[in-house]
């Protein structure tokens, strides 16, 4: 009997030790992750969410007010939300962010799906950004920051945008 008891106690001690190691690993990784996020938040860029500017087309006019030339990085002309046809809105949402009206700026399900797809098929095969995160990216001053740091900051900025604007206003600004 004592030999069986020692063997059982040894197994119990090994299980406890393994559980303790796993628990400590989670605590350490969680602490490092929390510290990283705190550092990212402290280094948030100074930005004005109400002054997000898209790359608009510049028009050049002659002395009579007639357009003679344009210059642009992206040929964009602002339109109001109501001017966009419903079919264009639906098509755009189907491709860019079909859950746009159901999330608060970030879509964790989509981010996890993109992470899984990138692990399986190679990095960059799928993105997890929502329309709101993409809008926050336009406001981002320093695109040379480390990608993970910038992505976390963009997600936090997207949450701020969602608190300030309606979904239709975000769609229009985008």
Structural write-up:
The chain has two domains: 1-42; 79-173, Biosynthetic peptidoglycan transglycosylase-like (Penicillin binding protein transpeptidase fold, Orthogonal Bundle). The longest helix is centred in the N-terminal third of the chain and has 41 residues, at 2-42. The chain has 174 residues and is mostly helical. The protein is built from six helices and two strands; from the N terminus they run αββααααα. Strands 1-2 form a two-stranded antiparallel sheet. It starts with a helix and ends with a helix. Strand 1 and strand 2 form a beta hairpin. Helix 4 packs across helix 5. It has helices spanning 2-42, 86-96, 108-121, 131-139, 147-164, 167-173, and strands at 58-61, 67-71.
Compose a concise summary of this entry.
The chain has 174 residues and is mainly alpha-helical. The protein has helices at 2-42, 86-96, 108-121, 131-139, 147-164, 167-173; strands spanning 58-61, 67-71.
Any key phrases for this structure?
2 domains, 6 helices, 2 strands, mainly alpha, 174 residues, elongated, 57% helix, Penicillin binding protein transpeptidase fold
Second CATH tier, the architecture of the largest domain: Orthogonal Bundle
CATH H-tier superfamily of the largest domain: Biosynthetic peptidoglycan transglycosylase-like
CATH topology of the largest domain: Penicillin binding protein transpeptidase fold
Please give the alpha-carbon distance between the first and last residues: 74 Å
CATH class designation of the largest domain = Mainly Alpha
Q: How many domains comprise the coordinates?
A: 2
Strand residues, percent: 5-15%
Topology, number of strands = 2
- Global shape: elongated
Q: What would you call the quaternary organization?
A: single chain
Mean pLDDT: 83
Biggest β-sheet strands, sense, barrel: 2 strands, antiparallel
Structural class per helix/strand content?
mainly alpha
């Amino acid at each position: 009997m004592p030999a069986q008891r020692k063997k059982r106690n040894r197994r119990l001690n090994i299980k406890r030790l393994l559980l303790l190691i796993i628990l400590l690993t989670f605590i350490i990784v969680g602490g490092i992750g929390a510290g990283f996020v705190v550092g990212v938040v402290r280094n948030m860029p100074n930005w004005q969410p109400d002054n997000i500017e898209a790359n608009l087309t510049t028009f050049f006019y002659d002395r009579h007010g007639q357009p003679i030339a344009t210059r642009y990085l992206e040929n964009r002309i602002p339109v109001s939300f109501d001017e966009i046809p419903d079919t264009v809105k639906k098509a755009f949402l189907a491709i860019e962010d079909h859950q746009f009206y159901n999330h608060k700026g970030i879509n964790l399900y989509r981010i996890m799906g993109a992470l899984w797809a990138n692990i399986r098929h190679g990095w960059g095969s799928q993105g997890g950004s929502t329309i709101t995160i993409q809008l926050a990216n336009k406001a981002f001053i320093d695109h040379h920051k480390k990608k993970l740091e910038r992505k976390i900051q963009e997600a936090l900025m997207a949450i701020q945008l969602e608190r300030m604007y309606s979904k239709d206003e975000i769609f229009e600004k985008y």
